[in-house]
Design goal:
There is one protein chain. The protein is mainly β and 107 residues long. It has a single domain (8-105), classed as Beta Barrel (Lipocalin), CATH 2.40.128. It is built from no helices and eight strands. The protein has strands spanning 8-10, 19-25, 28-35, 38-47, 53-61, 66-77, 83-91, 97-105. It has an eight-stranded antiparallel β-barrel with strand order 1-2-3-4-5-6-7-8. The chain is globular, with a radius of gyration of 13 Å. The protein starts with 7 loop residues before the first strand and ends with a strand.
Length: 107
């Protein structure tokens, strides 16, 4: 199992200003994130033996919009050895959507 405790992640495709800090106790994982358009965001979920995360998320944007959804994040490594999370996400509510995005560890 990958230990996510204390690791920081951000979007590698342009700096949108959002940084997430992850915490872990056993298989329980949570994170807080903010920056850019995001006033505050939270993740809560579990980590399996292969380091795959299954998380629920919520965030409040600076414009007051509230967004929630789920994500499955699978760890992989870049050629440079950086830990990357491939996120398959689903957003609920009036702006429902699905997609794939990536986060990379900030060293």
């Amino acid at each position: 199992m990958i230990d996510y405790n204390g690791r920081r992640f951000r979007n590698p495709d342009g700096d949108d200003g959002v940084v997430a800090v992850y915490y872990q106790t056993g298989d329980l994982v949570w994170a807080h994130f903010a920056g850019g358009k995001v006033r505050r965001g939270s993740l809560n979920g579990t980590c399996d033996a292969d380091g795959v995360l299954r998380l629920a998320y919520t965030m409040v944007l600076h414009g007051g919009e509230i967004i929630s959804g789920i994500t499955r994040s699978e760890p992989e490594h870049t050629e440079a050895g950086v830990l990357r999370l491939r996120e398959e996400w689903e957003r609920y509510g009036p702006n429902a959507a699905t997609g794939i995005s990536y986060l990379e560890e900030v060293r």
